[in-house]
Amino acid sequence: MTNIVLFGPPGAGKGTQADIIKDKYNLIHISTGDVFRYNIKNETDLGKKAKSYIDQGALVPDEVTIDMLAKEVDKHLADANGFIFDGFPRTEAQAKALDSLMQEKETQVNAMIALEVDDEVLVQRLLERGKTSGRADDADEDVIRNRIKVYYNETAILKNYFQAQDKFYGIDGVGSVQEITSRISEVMNKL
Ligand code: AMP
Question: Has domain 2-180 been given CATH number 3.50.30.30?
Answer without folding.
Answer: no
